[in-house]
Design a protein that fits this description.
Layout (H helix, E strand, L loop, with lengths): L4 E6 L7 H9 L7 E6 L6
């Protein structure tokens, strides 16, 4: 069995395009082939 590759993504500005892109990536079938590491600040609401 092959190990999955890991990709790190910077979240960026919470009010910018970053969160939208992260959402689209996480809903895509690519997750079967790679691990995603999201880097950003924790936001408490």
């Amino acid at each position: 069995m092959r190990n999955k590759k890991s990709i790190a993504i910077l979240l960026g500005d919470p009010s910018g395009i970053g969160p939208e892109l992260i959402s689209k990536i996480l809903s895509h079938n690519i997750l079967k082939k790679i691990n995603i590491v999201i880097i950003g600040e924790k936001i408490c609401i």
